[in-house]
Batch of 4 targets.
Target 1
Amino acid sequence: MKFLKVFRKRILFLWLIVGLMLIAFGGSCLLQINRLPPILKVSPGQRIKISAYFPLSFYTIHQHLQKDIPSRYARSLPLLANNLIVNSPAYEKFDVQVRLLGAIPVKRLHVEIAQPAMVVPGGQAIGVLFSSKGMVIIGHLSLKGLDQHIYYPAKDADIRIGDVLLAMDDMPVNRVDEVEYQLRNYQPKRKFIKLTILRRGKQITTKIRPVYCGQNGTIPRYMLGIYIEDPAAGVGTLTCYDPVSQRFAGLGHRIAEFAGKKGIPFNQGEIVLAKINGVRVGIPGQPGEKIGIFNSLLNPLGKIEKNSRFGIYGHLYGMDYRNAETPIAAAYHSEVTVGPAQIYTVIRGTKIEHFNVEIIKVYRQDAPRDKGMVIKVVDPLLLKLTGGIIQGMSGSPIIQHGKFIGAVTHVLVNDPTKGYGVLAEWMIQEMYGIAS
């Protein structure tokens, strides 16, 4: 009996060991399968190696996949290997099967060899405007008339938060004092003032009846019951543009709301060129920023048509290409590697300068995500001038091996020498997703 008990314990122990080995075996397989991307985009002529380890292997018949056997065999036999090298000179698509123990299909890898988009890298400092004209309505105000009644003239006129006030009685208004001037000259016998408003890209007109009141003991005057603000949303960087279609990309991240005002989504706007007059140096715990100026009444550079988590996108109205960079290829995420790179940005005036950075981590992304890489500023001049990555650098293009690989998006608050970048592949998808 004692012998049987010992024997059973040993059998149970062996089964436990086998079970743990099977769990480890299965876990290793799942990790490998999840690590392999479902779609792999490659530029023509780009050479890229993909690997799988026992018990997984690749299976396909394709002339531009190679393994460690003479190519004449690889081109005529089904290919079963652990290491494959994609190397094709022309556009094509094909599938690679991932197999377990060389027999059981567990995943399909789609390989697409395609010409990359050719874009001009930016770096220009830009002012981002909710509108290039008028004043943004950021709130409503109830008014107590001299008759002690409460009035809501803006709501009664269907004026909404986020509307842009363009004109009063056909007179353009671009400053607060111009609105006040129109109200001072209001004649009560006319009853209403005609307002021209921009709402979601469409121009509309409405009528509003000003209320004569004295708010909080002030001298009585006519008021509209609205809060208004300058349409400037801030300073950023133009990332790239297509000189043929005139599409552009900028910032690298979403503008969540107009100037931080809740309830005013940034769903319209324009960009203008900006001038950097100064810099507040970043320190750990306190990000720095570019101090820029721009005139919202100048001719806008382009129209914003999309505001997504990968930046702002739209069409340029026209650019001076005499000093523009030569178009370069936008890299697929499979081409981005750890190592040296450059960012293009403006720190002084309007001059675009190139600064050295190091890509210290690249995240494998099978689907669009905003944080695709971690970068570290290593350029002594940029570190001296800014302390690293600062606000206003968002959208600065990142160049590696002569290709556009992404854009600066965020700074690490506790270490301003480091920050995140979005991959160029996702920005290009967004840019070409807008209508021609």
Target 2
Amino acid sequence: MVFNYILRSLRGTNLEVFKFGMYLAFPIGYMYYFGTNLENRFSVPGFWPTQEQSHKIPFEREEIRAEVQRIQQKMADLRARSPLEQQQRLKDRGTEVPEQNTSG
């Protein structure tokens, strides 16, 4: 009964006004629903690292110098370890290890 009344009243100009209202209300409602309370609705707990887990950027001259030395030491260790690991891999495969010329 009520449905028939709505269908009879939504003809012509009333239908156009109703459609225009829906065209305006739907995007506004959509933006309101997905734009409010974002922190609780769409958050993943533990996604971003905490202050303790993230890197601390050095700003002082001594801190920067210490960080550069640490990185250089790490790279030197990797360079020193790389030929030894390569020789070990070749030995494990059973191939002959090529002699390295150290008189460079």
Target 3
Amino acid sequence: MEWDNDNTKISRRKLLSAAGTAAVAGVLLGQGVGLASQGNGVVNDVYGNPTMSSNGNASGIRRIVEEVIEEYGHVNVKEFGAVGDGVTDDSQAFRDALAYACNNHLTLMTDLGKTYLVDNIVVEGKTDFRLVFRGILKRPDQLPATNPQTRTLQFNNCSNFVIEELHFDGNHFNNNCFVGGVYNTEFLQEYRHCLYLYNCRYARFGKIVGKNPSGDVIYINGANTYNLDFDIVEGMSVDRDGVTPIALGRNTVSVCEGKNITFNVVKSLGVGHITMPGGFDIEPNWGEQVSDVYVNYLYVLSSSMSALGITTKYGAGANIKNIEIGTVHIENDVAAPKRLLVLTGCTNVHLNRVYIKGTVESYAVHIGIAGNAQPVYKLKFDSLEIDTCRYGVMADHLDEGYMNVIVNQASENLLRLYNVSNFDFDVKGSFNPLTAYPNTPVKNFCIYLYMAGTNNLINCKFTGDLAKNRVGIVGERCITTNASNGAAQITNCEFSLNLDGWEEARKLVGQLSHTRKMDLTRSNILGTTAMRPTANLMQGFSYYDTTLNKPIWWNGANWIDGTGAVI
């Protein structure tokens, strides 16, 4: 092979001629090359330059796609009569163009800047084709209610294909979608997805953008769905000004069935009706299973019911397995009891870095409670930070795992636990200083062990810092339980926490005497009232007043006790 110059660059034509169509197809479609950064893949583009993208692979794939387009044949939808003026119905032109491109294993293109009015485009059983759609696929206005529901672009039983770019406009405003409306009955908008993948396999996706979806931007289903790689997925629902996020649509991504599915970056802005999910959802239905899903980065700005759901009503933990997400960033602005991160019926879920910003009514993390209270096994949170919520973490039917959590600005509980076993909690946090104190009824508990009925806490360990000066003066109790039978319900647990500053009567409330270990620290600086330090005091400095027989601390101006009263 003749090199063009002294470095390792080789011309496009020589490389492609030497490699041949089959070899290039292998590079594009082989299992070893993914748009999400998973293992070894393409590390140089066809000119020998290092790829430059968020995951190290996408620009290389895109360059190769461009080369294939140039060298090995492509067609444009305009050759089949597509107009792209946003007024003419181009649906049949797209059906004809897709049939021709797929049957002849070509690349099908659209023109940048064009808007194509289309719906109900279905590709069935095709293989080895490529799409580069830089124009916008827009749903027509006022589509009639039908059953089954139409999707904008649907692939059934397709394999070994590349979709390098897709842009959708779901046109929800002009299809009877409105905030607070009856969303999934008369017009069945919940099911009108932009991109629907059924029983698809060995497919690679570059950039998928969905604006104003009526249903999901991407919906994935089918027992024979596997080996799908997505680089960038963006969903957005905006008001008529084109900028302000508005709560409409269902999810940016829904995975109802499939395995070995990877996403590099998923961003969801506003997508999700206020009474429905929103953002990213793994939710198999009866008889469906999802396993081995990896997401590198997930960002959700949502006003909907949930921003991230890994949940099912079926299977007792067997229908969702092996889910890993690197970084999660969730923000929700609705002052209502919304569950922002929901996990039920899943096994072996690993969330590395999670940040959640909610409101004073948010249920930030909901585990094993929603739906039919399906169990959660082997759950791992390496780092979970919650900023503003009603409840930080609520957990029921949770067995095995760990959580490192900081809950700031809670208005009720940092942790609220029902049935939990074999789990380690490292917890820090604070209460919203605007929360009423004292509450009626009393409810500002750092850790609430809700042991009503037959609930149990078994083989659990609690570490962390819940000092009174950290959690704030509105904290009414540190650890409390309503267990009717502590010996039977709270067993073999360890509490190794810093509870500095809590009065003894408020430190522990309820039956905790049957735990395995209680190691609750308090300030080791103590003395009489007359011996209180006076020099170089820092705000939050703790002191145990033996005259008063209770902890106090310095608030920057005065000594105060656990109620906030100046002492």
Target 4
Amino acid sequence: MTPNAPNPARALLERVLRTVALLTLAVALYLANRPASPPGGRDALRQWSVADVTDSTATALTTAVVGELIAAAGDTQPRRVTVDLSALPSPRARALFGAVDGADIALRWIDRTQASGIALSATTVAGHSQAIDVRVAGSTAASLPLVLRDLGGMLDSIPATRRAGWRLASMSPPLRVLIGASEARVFAREAAPTRRVMLMAEPGWESKFVAAALEEAGWQVDGSYRVSPRTAITVGAPARLDTSRYAVVVLLDSMSVDAAGVTRFVQQGGGLVLGGDALRISALSPISPARATSTRGGAAGALLTNVPQRGLEAWELVANRGAAVVRSDPSEHGHAEPVLVAQRVGAGRVVASAYRNSWRWRMEGTDDGAAEHRAWWGAVLGLAAGVPTVAVDTLADAYPGDAAPFADLVARIGGPVGADSAVAPNRTSARSAFDALMDRLRAAPGLLFMVIALTLLGEWASRRLRGNR
């Protein structure tokens, strides 16, 4: 077949197609060897102005961020986002911001919230009462009042200070503290069902008045008083030792006990108080926090002083390794004598109390003796009972949460930036149109291949139609 003489227009078209194919191939080779764009010079800063990042706006923000993630799917460099906040975000929004920051999208925020970093804690007090200790700390303006509220309304209002605290007998969660635009909240753990105390002793003044002090303090006492090796008088409805029914077992005398059952009770989370002569029960020495060596008499007339404990007969204690001396009394020899020693055994606690006849504190002391005796035994049982543990979510507990929302936001995405520095990248990272075009072409390699294939195919088809190979 004799090739036809090329039409000048067709010849020009063929040369253009061939040139485009070669240029496109050269661009593809250039992009394959071109280094990635620096992080500061990729895209103009994306900025949202969020008046109040609540759950609803968090949903809208999620949609926008997902769009950013899809757009950046083929990119080698992270995108940058700035959020302008005039109110602290909700928990959902803060979690979203943390996820965005962890997805290689550099997230910064401008603080226009006028909120301060306050933190709120609510801890259940050990013991039967299930009272709640509330603490507030942070940097606050002195001119703003601090308001404590629960679901039922306002509980207290005081001038704002760096630290404040309350002990609440009861509350309706959630518990909130407000200082101006700042708010923190916690959902205090609901009170556990009240558990009882098992008191084991021989009949006498000590067992009688210890039981009375515990009942006056609000504990429900079941007692077993041994009057002979085979006979015991019961108080209440004593049952088998079980942590679901009993919080603490109190032993006051050197007597025969089921040491294996008591040890098992403690290891499963129960509390044990060894008071007075119970420290001499050899079967319980493996779990006792202290050894009783000898007795020391009470100081004459001390029961009527401001240190009535010195008038009580007590054992001299030697704390075992791993035990903690919780309280000591001054002695006549010039050194401190341990009178309260505690140790953790398994999941429970064992407390040793040195006093042998604490009832004299109540009956022979000052007018405040009964209240002080009651407070002493309440504190001893609170130390042994502890607070029931609850399961925690380690991922959620890695951040402060609503108990300190400002600190929670900073922990997730870092501290705020100034408004001027937030918009600076728009002015300093402007790039040429060529760099922008190259980035777009790098993100679409299929487009380059299509251009090369179509131009070469068109040039080849034109030559074939006029009989030229």
